[in-house]
Amino acid sequence: MKKSILLSLIGFSGLVMAQIPTGHYDGTDNLSGTALKTKLSQIEASGHKDLGYNWAVFATADRDNYYEKDNSVLDIYSENPKGADPYNFTIVTNQCGNYNGEGVCYNREHTIPKSTFGDARPMHNDYHHLLATDGYVNGKRSNWPYGEVGTASWTSKNGSKLGNSKLNGYGGTVFEPIDEFKGDIARIYFYFATRYENQIQSFNYDMYDGTKTTVFAEPFRSMLVKWHQQDPVSQKEIDRNNAVAKLQGNRNAYVDHPEFVAKIWGTVLAVDDASFSKNLTIAPNPVKGNVIAVTGDKDLKQFKKAMIYNMVGQNVQTIENPFQNGNTITLNNLPKGIYILKTGELNTKFIVD
Predict the structure, then answer these.
(1) Phi/psi at 315 (nearest 5 deg)?
(2) Number of neighbouring beta carbons within 10 Å of residue 278
(3) Which 8-state DSSP code applies to residue 245?
(4) b/e 224-246 (16+ beta carbons within 10 angstroms → b)
(5) Most buried of 15, 244, 270, 338, CB within 10 angstroms?
């Protein structure tokens, strides 16, 4: 079932700032570009402990408390955001061994393939980019770069795809996760490029350009930025960041401060309407004043929060109990631009004109 995007407990800023150590991002004010990335690299390296290659972190960081909320393994390659999962894994019990198809066991996936950095430490054991995923799907993904598939040669049961790239400028084989987790993947990649700034230019990967500054070759930079913009930080990501940080000692800055992505890697204008829900409607749209009427295919009174994001992932407004006295929301004098409204599992795009 659909994840609660920063909505289920408290607002984005309150929740995140309660977990970030005081002064953790000191020295980042007024920085941008390479200077900001270098500063974040120093911050992310500080306190980083190599925990070894084990299963224990997943037992804390990768439980499904957001969709079915059944405490099963939260696997991005089997989770079905719109209904029942095709299968579920139990923490520890279903760790891989052998497998000959989907749904047999879960293993430890390096979202940045370990072949790209030669199994070097601490990259190999960095749990900010290690995820618990279906072993068979992980094998299908192999070390192919993430991308957007034109014609799929194979599709997982939750819709993740392997196939030829439809990205303009790259014609190789790519693996495409479902929309629900594209922003998660993008912020993992930005973390890795930042944490290992001084080593990454020596890593061999189609997604890289061979530099420590821009890091990502086109069209992959634009794709990751787009994924980040279309899929803002989720409660799942916040909780996982906190869980890994508690054990490993360092944080993913792009989960804590998604606005850093735009400051370092820029923004893209492309907005894919297919990535937004069709079961939430805003009127008028474009918005001419500060009051909007919101309707959906569910009883909106059940949602305790609504949050508004700009297109670089920043939370610009949080509304408590937004629909208890009707279906209108008063905006906080938002500048002209494109925004995303999210409440519960519903979301949609609107324009302030």
Answers:
(1) -80, 115
(2) 10
(3) H
(4) bbbbbbbbbbbbbbbbbbbbbbe
(5) 244
Domain end, chosen from 207, 234, 266, is at 266
**Cα four-point dihedral sign 71, 72, 77, 83:** negative
Taking the C-alpha atoms of residue 22 and residue 16, their distance in angstroms, rounded to an integer, is: 12
Residue where a domain terminates, one of 245, 266, 287: 266
pLDDT in tens, 149-204: 999 999 999 999 999 999 988 999 999 999 999 999 999 999 999 999 999 999 99
Position 257 in a domain: yes
| Full domain range(s) for residue 315 | 276-352
The total number of structural domains that make up the chain: 2
CB contact at 8 A, 131 and 177: no
The CATH number of whichever domain residue 342 belongs to comes to 2.60.40.3080
Cβ–Cβ under 8 Å, residues 347 and 341: yes
* Whether residue 281 sits in one domain with residue 149: no
Whether residues 80 and 161 fall in one domain:
yes
pLDDT at residue 279, rounded to an integer: 80
**Cα 348 to Cα 121, 155, 160, 193, 256, distances in angstroms:** 42, 27, 23, 31, 23
Same domain as 286, residue 200: no
Helices (H), 127-234: 135-141, 182-195, 220-230
Q: Which residues pair with 133 in a beta bridge?
A: 107
Residue 311 CA to residue 59 CA, distance in Å, equals 33
Closest among 156, 162, 110 to 131, alpha carbons compared: 110
Q: Beta 328-330 vs 291-296: how paired, if at all?
A: antiparallel
Question: Any alpha helices (H) in 142-296, and if so which ranges?
Answer: 182-195, 220-230, 235-248, 253-256, 259-265
Q: Are 147 and 224 in contact (CB under 8 A)?
A: no
Same domain, 99 and 47: yes
Report the 10 Å Cβ neighbour count for 273: 9
How large a percentage of the chain has pLDDT more than 70? 91
145, two tokens: 């770069």
pLDDT of residue 277: 65
